[in-house]
Write a structure and sequence with these properties.
By secondary structure, this protein is of the alpha/beta class. The chain is built from 6 helices and 11 strands. It has one domain: Dihydrofolate Reductase, subunit A. The chain has an 11-stranded mixed β-sheet. It is globular.
Length: 261
């Protein structure tokens, strides 16, 4: 998802917990996820967008279902975490570049006591990542790749490190990121396959979910969790809800068994 450059901030109408109107940057100022981290792993928030019929992309990309308001919230959330996590498939399709390309938002991060750029965490079991991806060619970007392979990428300009295990071990990787790399708060941006694994291991603490007022039908692909193998439904507790032109922006706490499960 590309940055909304030279576009004025749009106002979101807050429905819950109390009525009001504010921008995405003002909205996220209340978020201090680094204070919620436990000793064992970072606090993890999942940020996703989906259609009214539950599709997370159209023809493989989120662009067709993303709006200016959603893009502004997407980038504002990146100013409040130590690291941004993404799966290899999403990285390839969306052609991720520098995680915080806007200098003003990098200043917002510094003002919050964070590094100017978040660590980029890429989950790639096979390390099937083209070296020409913008993120990997950005010298200012720090990238940690969670992988089960023993080889390294060649021809990259980013600062790349690896977390290796015989099979991709998400709980182990998050524990190492917390204990060895000082990562306290992660924003996970999917895709659906990574989300499913994270949910199955109980590694998601919050969900930021944008629901766009469109139906994708057969053009849409997967849900935000791709049929995660959950033994019982997981409860979501609504923290806040905002609206703009029929588009809904919700924040949920994730955890516990759903009522009746």
């Amino acid at each position: 998802m590309t940055a909304a450059r030279n576009e004025p901030p749009v106002a979101l109408r807050r429905v819950l917990p109390e009525p009001g109107e504010l921008t995405a940057d003002a909205l996220v100022q209340e978020l201090r996820p680094w204070e919620l981290a436990g000793a064992e792993r970072p606090h993890v928030a999942l940020n996703m967008v989906h259609t009214g019929d539950g599709r997370a992309s159209v023809h493989g990309r989120t662009g067709p279902i993303s709006s200016l308001a959603d893009r502004q919230l997407f980038h504002a959330l990146r100013t409040r975490v130590d690291a941004v996590m993404v799966g290899a498939g999403t990285l390839r399709v969306e052609r991720y570049g520098r995680m915080v390309p806007d200098a003003g938002r990098r200043e917002q991060r510094r003002a919050a006591g964070l590094e100017a750029d978040p660590l980029a965490i890429v989950v790639s079991g096979s390390l099937d990542l083209p070296a020409d991806l913008p993120l990997l060619q950005d010298p200012s970007s720090r990238v940690m790749i969670v992988t089960s392979t023993s080889h390294a990428l060649e021809g990259v300009r980013a600062q790349v490190e690896y977390l290796r295990s015989p099979a991709v071990d998400l709980p182990g990787a998050l524990a190492a990121l917390r204990s060895d790399h000082g990562v306290r708060a992660i924003l996970c941006e999917g895709g659906p396959h990574l989300n499913a694994s994270m949910l199955a291991h109980g590694l998601i603490d919050e969900l930021f979910l944008t629901t766009v007022p469109v139906l994708a039908g057969a053009a849409g692909a997967l849900s935000i969790s791709n049929g995660a193998p959950l033994e019982t439904p997981v409860a979501l507790t609504l923290r806040w809800m905002l609206e703009r032109e029929g588009e809904l922006f919700a924040r949920y706490a994730v955890g516990g068994a759903a009522p009746g499960s």
